[in-house]
Specification:
four-stranded antiparallel sheet, 8 helices, 14 strands, 28% helix, elongated
Length: 295
């Protein structure tokens, strides 16, 4: 057993699994504490390094592409401090950190673990049900469907449409960008019908606009990860798919016809809200213009 215990957390390697446990100190980000312990099978690891510094070093683990739904959902956009595969190490424990790293590297070599992308997720992601309250609303996922309940500060159009419920079978992807504190983020659920939509997050009833506490809004990555873990693995995408458009509709569906149907449906929904008095003339005209620009 190779193990290092720090205020930032604990890494323990038994020859087959690296068990990562976040520390309980107040300096440990809320996201890591909430995500909890992660058991990383050796076959998911691409490499590990110890980076010494003058006062404090850090252990960093790299996972094989496609092995972890968390990394797939967040796309490398987690802040460094919230990265569960990074451990801050005190200078007097540098020798222990290097020993742990070397033991993991030796096992990778002996077991001849490949570095190529995986064809299935090797980590399970957070358990369900999971629910997070953000600045724009509360998003919940029970393994079968996503539910979004809007807050009083959500856009009027979102509140007018009521809670949004999306079955996992209707989803083709999840898009997530953290709230940095300087720039808003979002959590968007992409369905076959909304794949071409370009509505801004504050107007999109399938997206949470993240503009409040960056610390709290970061927890929406838990939901993004839980949903991603239950969607088809990226390796199942057609070789003809554009890598810059991971949520593109299958080629068997006429994109232009589907695009047109979605536009008409959105305009009908807005028209009904306008006729019912939910939207004022000005709000209707503004939202209609946004929809048309998005298409």
């Amino acid at each position: 057993m190779a193990e290092i215990i720090q205020r930032d957390g604990t890494w323990a390697f038994d020859g087959t699994t690296v068990r990562i446990t976040p520390g309980l100190h107040r300096s440990v980000p809320l996201f890591r504490q909430t995500y909890g312990e992660i058991a990383v099978p050796l076959e998911a690891v691409s490499g590990v390094v110890f980076e010494p510094e003058r006062k404090r070093g850090r252990l960093r683990m790299r996972l094989r592409e496609g092995a972890d739904p968390l990394l797939q959902a967040t796309g490398g956009r987690l802040p460094d401090a919230a990265d569960p595969y990074r451990l801050a190490v005190d200078v007097d424990r540098a020798g222990v950190a290097e020993y742990v790293a070397e033991e993991i590297r030796r096992a990778l070599l002996l077991d001849q673990i490949p570095k190529e992308p995986t064809k299935t997720y090797l980590l399970s992601g957070p358990p369900v049900p999971v629910s997070v309250r953000s600045s724009d609303g509360t998003v919940s996922f029970d393994g079968l469907q996503v539910r979004i309940d809007w807050t009083d500060t959500s856009d009027r159009v979102k509140r007018a449409t009521g809670p949004r419920i999306i079955a996992i079978t209707d989803l083709v992807g999840v898009e997530w960008l953290p709230n940095s504190g300087y720039e808003d983020g979002f959590l968007r659920f992409v369905t076959r019908e909304t794949a071409f939509s370009k509505l801004p997050p504050e107007k999109d009833p399938y997206a949470l606009d993240l503009w409040g506490s960056a610390r709290r809004d970061l927890l929406t990555a838990l939901v993004a990860t839980a949903v991603t873990a239950r969607l088809p693995h990226p390796s199942t995408r057609s070789a003809t798919d554009d890598p810059d458009r991971p949520h593109r509709l299958p080629s068997a569906i006429p994109p232009q016809a589907d695009h047109h149907d979605v536009l008409l449906r959105r305009l009908r929904e807005l028209g009904e809200l306008h006729r019912e008095g939910v939207l004022t003339d000005e709000e209707f005209a503004m939202t209609k213009a946004v929809v048309l620009r998005g298409f």
